[in-house]
Design a protein that fits this description.
Elements: H1 3-17, E1 31-34, E2 46-49, E3 63-65, H2 68-75, H3 80-101, E4 103-107, E5 113-116, H4 118-124, H5 128-131, H6 142-145, H7 148-158, E6 163-171, E7 177-188, E8 194-203, H8 205-224, E9 226-230, E10 236-239, H9 241-247, H10 251-254, H11 265-268, H12 271-281, E11 286-293, E12 299-310, E13 316-325, H13 327-455, H14 460-574
Parallel strand pairs: 1-3
Antiparallel strand pairs: 1-2, 4-5, 4-8, 6-7, 7-8, 9-10, 9-13, 11-12, 12-13
């Protein structure tokens, strides 16, 4: 085998493994290596390798020159085979290392599968026998495989143009979707023609799912929350519709302006506001409840987090704020705080009233005990009074009976005196009659005397009789006069007695009336005394019940005080 052929084979090994140390790139770049810069400008080959394909960062192709000393060493006739052996061993070790960590699959230029390593087979869920000889499209969604871009993709590879590492969705066995990051690398033969394509891939399904999850979360936040982005000085870079709607602005109204347009001027000039942005620039996030002003000066309250965002070097390059409108909740909380304060004040009043009630209940308890004792004493007194009144009533009844009897007797005396007066009056008539008769007799005696004188001697005897009759008449007249005088005296006395009896009758009638009234009053007093006794007994029972109720009130006020304390604690917890 000629030196040229051996050198070409060595380059092909290097191309397939990417193992020559002179071909290593920096920063995980995909590197296109060419041999056209060798000093003698004789052979050209295209060497493609992939470094750090699992990184997920954009990669770029760069050209690198093979050192002339390395080529001269290979072409040295005396040492070529030894160097080739070492190079082959190094290439095999590198290939084994790559194959152990990366999924590798080889295709014909038209996309027919030649072989694949275990990492690729495990990723896609196939055995080598199941995929060997099949076309690459078995891993591709039918819609993507039918796209003209897919045909151009294999046409580019067949013409020797490598495909940069990119993330692609592929279909594993059973229709399971997987995401891989891989590069398709055409491999050239000694004549510079593509004779196969090597794909080096990494499974990024989990990273993709995590990224999709994070992206979904961010989109969800954007749909449900107000989002705004600032540079490190607080100037607005972007804002979503939720934020703009909340604050009453359009994006062109706020973009490029400072965050302080949403802040009360007093707050914006405070040290705390400056500290907020200093902390954000230092990478320290801030979260809390903030008061902000809309375009028309209306107050809104938001719960927001200011989140410093780091670049790939770990440096803060912007700030993203996520916010939720909590104006209604804050106003409700303020209203609740006012209500709680009012309730607290009412509770204080209730506690004070309960304490006063409790104190009054204690005082009332003592008073009711004293009242109960007094009522018991009064009840005893009313019992005694009732007994006395009953005794007095009995005496008054007896007095009333006696007064009735006296009244009857006085009335009888009055009637008798009336009859006596009537009798004396009648006697006066009789006396008058007797006096009239005596006068007639005296007149007759006078006539008889006159007639006897006329008769002379014959009439002397008649004269004597007339004289006697005249004397009798005179005596009768004198006697009747005395009788009349006595009757007048008796009549006068009878009149006096009758008058006195009348006065006595009136007095007895008055006494009788008073006795009757007194007896009635005493009967009423006796009834009242009995009623008082019954009322005192009932009052005593009522006072005892009041004392019991006062005890209940005292216990209730103590319970109310305890409940008020619990309500205070509950209100404190709510506040």
């Amino acid at each position: 085998m000629s030196m040229r052929k051996r050198t070409e084979l060595m380059f092909q090994v290097a191309i397939r493994t990417g193992g020559a140390s002179a071909c290593q790139g920096r920063d995980g770049d995909r590197i296109r290596r060419t041999a056209d810069a060798c000093p003698d400008q004789r052979w050209q080959a295209r060497a493609i390798a992939v470094a750090n394909t699992s990184g997920g960062f954009p990669v770029r192709q760069v050209g690198i020159r093979w050192p002339a000393s390395y080529l001269e060493m290979v072409m040295n006739a005396g040492k070529g085979w030894a160097m080739f052996g070492r190079f082959k061993q190094d290439a095999a070790a590198t290939l084994a290392a790559v194959s152990g960590t990366q999924a590798l699959i080889e295709f014909k230029p038209d996309g027919t599968i030649l072989t694949a390593n275990n990492a690729f087979l495990s990723l896609m869920g196939y055995s080598l026998a199941e995929i060997k000889g099949q076309h690459h499209r078995m891993f591709v969604d039918p819609a993507d495989a039918a796209d003209p871009a897919y045909a151009r993709f294999w046409s580019d590879l067949a013409s020797g143009r490598a495909v940069p590492a990119q993330e692609s969705r592929r279909i594993a066995k059973g229709g399971r979707p997987v995401w891989i990051q891989g590069s398709y690398n055409p491999v050239l033969d000694g004549r510079g023609r593509v004779y196969k394509v090597v794909k080096v891939a990494s499974d990024v399904t989990n990273q993709r799912l995590r990224a999709a999850d994070l992206s979904g979360q961010i989109e969800a936040l954007g749909r449900s929350q107000a989002v705004i982005t600032f540079d490190l000085d607080g100037h607005i870079l972007d804002a979503n519709e939720n934020f703009l709607s909340l604050m009453g602005y359009r994006l062109e109204d706020v973009k490029g302006r400072h965050h302080r347009i949403f802040v009360d001027p007093v707050d914006a000039s405070s040290p705390a506001y400056r500290s907020l942005w200093n902390d954000l620039r230092q990478g320290r996030h801030s979260a809390g409840e903030f008061r902000r002003l809309t375009r028309d000066g209306r107050e809104v309250y938001i719960h927001a987090t200011y989140n410093p965002i780091l670049d790939m070097n770990g440096k803060v390059f912007k700030v993203v704020k996520f916010a939720s409108d909590i104006t209604a909740q804050v106003k409700a909380r303020h209203s609740n705080e006012q209500v709680l304060a009012l309730v607290q004040r009412y509770l204080d009043d209730i506690v004070q009233a309960v304490e006063v009630s409790n104190r009054q209940a204690v005082e009332m308890s003592g008073a009711t005990e004293q009242t109960s004792a007094n009522i018991q004493a009064v009840a005893v007194g009313t019992d005694q009074l009732d007994g006395s009144i009953r005794s007095i009533a009995q005496n008054m009844n007896q007095s009333r009976d006696a007064a009735e009897r006296v009244f009857a007797q006085v009335d009888a005396v009055g009637q008798a005196m009336a009859r006596l007066v009537d009798g004396t009056s009648a006697m006066n008539g009789i006396v008058s009659l007797i006096q009239d008769i005596a006068g007639q007799i005296n007149l007759l005696a006078l006539n008889a005397t006159i007639e006897s004188a006329r008769a002379g001697e014959a009439g002397k005897g008649f004269a004597v009789v007339a004289t006697e009759v005249k004397g009798l008449a005179r005596q009768a007249s004198e006697a009747t006069q005395r009788i009349a005088d006595e009757i007048g005296t008796v009549q006068h006395v009878a009149d006096d007695v009758a008058s006195q009896v009348s006065h006595i009758h009136d007095a007895v009638a008055a006494v009788r009336s008073l006795v009757l009234s007194t007896a009635g009053a005493i009967d009423q007093q006796s009834s009242v005394a009995r009623l008082m006794t019954r009322n005192m007994q009932e009052s005593s029972l009522a006072v005892q019940r009041i004392a019991g109720n006062v005890g209940d009130i005292s216990r209730s006020t103590a319970l109310a005080n305890d409940q008020v304390t619990r309500v205070r604690e509950a209100l404190s917890a709510l506040a």
